[in-house]
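User: Predict the complex with XIL.
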Amino acid sequence: MRTLLRALLAAALLCLAPALPAHAADHVYDFEDGTTQGWAPRGDGVSVTVTAGAAHGGTGSLLTTGRTATWHGATLAAPFVKGVTYRVSAYARLDTGQPDATIALTVQRTPAGGETTYERVAAATVTDGAWVRLAGTYLFTADSTDLQLYAESSDATGRYLLDDVVLAPQGDPTREPVTTGFEDGTAQDWSPRASAVLAATTDAAHEGTRSLAVTGRSASWDGPAFNVLGRMGKGDKYDLSVWVRLGPDTPSGRLGLSIERRSAGTPSYERVVPPTDVPAGEWVRLAGTYTLSRDVDFLSLYLESDTGTFPFYLDDFAMTYVAPKPIQTDIPALKDRVPFTLGSALTLPDSLGVHGELLARHFNGITPGNEMKWDATEPREGEFAFADADALVGFGVEHGMTIRGHTLAWHSQTPAWVFENADKATLLARLENHVRTLVTRYKGKIAVWDVVNEVVDENQPDGLRRSPWYEITGLDFIRTAFRVAHEADPDAKLFINDYNTEYPRKREALYALVKKLKAEGVPIDGVGHQLHLNIEQPPASNVEDTIERFATLGVRQQVTELDVSVYTDFVSSYDTIASELLAEQGHRYKELFDVFRRQAARLDSVTVWGESDDVSWLNTWPITRLDAPLLFDRDLQAKPAYWAVADPSKLSPRVRRLEAPAAEVVLDGKRDLQWDLLPDAPIARVGAVSAGLQARTGAAGTYVLAEVTDPTVSAADRVTITVGGVTRTVTRAGGPRAAVRPTAAGYRVEALVPKGTDVDVTVRDGGTAISWTGKVTAAPAVKLTTAAHRAPVLDGVVDAAWRAAPQVRTGTRIQGTSGASAAVRSLWNGSTLYVLAEVTDPVLSEESADAWQQDSVEIFVDPGNGKTKGYTDDDGQYRVSFSGRLTVGGTFDAAGVKDNLTAVAKVVPGGYVVEAAIKVPTVPLRPGTLLGFDVQVNDATGATRTAAATWSDATGRSYLDTSHWGVLRLS
Ligand code: XIL
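Assistant: Here is the predicted structure with XIL placed in the model:
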């Protein structure tokens, strides 16, 4: 029976994709030619004639007389085609003297093997005084015979006129907009999922006078559902929108919009709009998009609450097909432009429609983004699900693509059962079964497996992530996964994959692990560098250093998940992304692909984590925001990032920015402390030449520092500095008002040039030139203070040890014009930094639930003094409230810094004292070490912060951006 039902549904579905003549013409019946145009009497004694006595348009209309039953009337052998939606309209009027009646247009139809049905298409109350319009839509989807469209009347004997009947085929039903506003007083095709009661009502309306009241719900998922089977096409995208309001006596509730889909009989539930707060008495719009990515035999959209069965109203539902922009076919295929496999991650919908076309055109590799993860492939022990993974592998095979399998063992997207009641043997047995099943299934089709993913944590003493895998098995899960994968497919290349491998500490932790496992004989073929980067960080040179480092291990390497977020922090969010940012991103991609091309002998493939910005995971991670990290935009059109790969000569010139803090520098070619206060702005490597740049604003002009990496000495080597159109040239032998010294990797130039904003610095090495072109702006001097080498007792009492350190004040106001401030001293000992803040703040408050809105001191520490926009993983914001509450901020999860702080706070007359100890495990502390450093005092009045002051950073963004912190030098 089930099978039969399914077959019937499938047949019905097939019927829904009719081969439509393009722009099928409307059928019009205007009775202007004097004939009945195919309309005939229905019922004994009925007569149908054309009359010139009345007309809606022109001079003739159709008169029906002689009726003796309500279903008597004028009828037409209807030209309706199965699966095509028709807009049906007509004008009706009663013959003079007839009493008012309801005239209806109805379709009589006999489905194959079924009983004759009568379907009302349109109806209205009609009088003898005026022409009234009848309108509705009609669609049938089962093979049928004897289709008749006829007009009937509630008055069994009434005489009526018809004119200008139009049957307009609406084309593909999957392209038709659907709207329901309940103004006709019906539920308009909405039906309850279970026992809920739906009724059109005038008690509330978003627009017009009616909405749909939903009462009597039996569960959070019970409520109104709308059948959209046949209304959505596979691979097509739809905008969905509906307004909701809580029912009477419902103080609060959350409502969302979901889709129930059944594919091959298996139901899935997908959220289009997650349950959203609906404040009492307000209409709230739930809006989202949905792409149908599978064949379905049931498809229904419905409203549900997160909990509860409260009543609600819904109104003004709309579903509209979103037509995709065609992909560009006049631009080069990216895969032809690079000397390695160019891959893209994809999920099931991305293999369809224009997304599928874009992938096939530009990429010769794919990585399923989610479909091969454990939660997708083995949701319950021993129950494997491969439909989606198979579909993507099929897509890859069909297009001759190299397929990366992602991923066999990971701590994320792994069902809870895997670790439940698992001792080591059980867990390894589960792993073995999983790995063997997947790798065997795709043997010969999947060329590369990410066998283990993200197992390194450089903040652990042994460099290994504390996942359940590790906690239960130590390193054995890695050993087992590689062994079994190798047994299952000896030809597959087996990879260990991780993020942040371009940062030295993580790089070294992964390096040590791979080296150890390889030495044991674990069959690791390669290292995958995810490369989730951002527009600023890290420099391309980090990536190159990583590739060169792993080359010494003799492993294969692949870039596996490249993307370049336009954000440098985990908080910001733009409404639109500025074109300058996209242009800058293009230059970032160019620098990266320069590295990949140079390193092509070591790199099998480069995979981007998604083909186009609309499908990037960064739209919802780490927060929901608009991002644009990929090569193609949301309409699948080429971005500057695309041209960076396809043809960098098409990029618009790069405009960079550099601050020149106030300072006087001795021109002697030495790198004095002043230059070490800030990192050099990188000019990325081309050929063998690269450089770092800095500037300072002095009384007599701008000081420029160029640290040039150029291993081959030549008389033609030179740096030219152009300010406001005037060019100064410095060779290895020197130049006017410039000093040059050789360095280990090249040479250093210090030059004094006239002040000016528009600056170009070009470094030449033979035929190769690299440039920095942009705006240089004067800035306040970089703040510098010293930490003395002592250890204090952390007890809130200012002991004598502190006197060894100089005192600075938080004199930079970032909020308010007066308020709390602190005198600050620093000490260091071993790998710990100590900070004393003596705060003047007579009125203290911890009323706010936000730690930053309480009276508190924040200490900012950047161990590498990287001065990065955005935090890198050892940058920390350490907050101590006057009562000694500790809070720590860092990158998204603050994993690298969260345990670094201990502190004591003590209230004293007129304020409080904070003594803090901050562990700095990531750089060696020794005399001369420079740390990025700042201190901020938050001043609360009641439950809000009303003033704040820092030592250095005037931007108010020290919690997001380390680039304007000062410098602490260890003595
Ligand atoms: C991401 C997917 O793209 C998302 O759709 C999913 O919600 C979370 O995982 N590192 C990895 C990938 O190895 O598997 C992750 O993929 C992105 C980070």
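The pocket of XIL is lined by residues 369-370, 453, 530, 561, 617 (CB under 6 Å).
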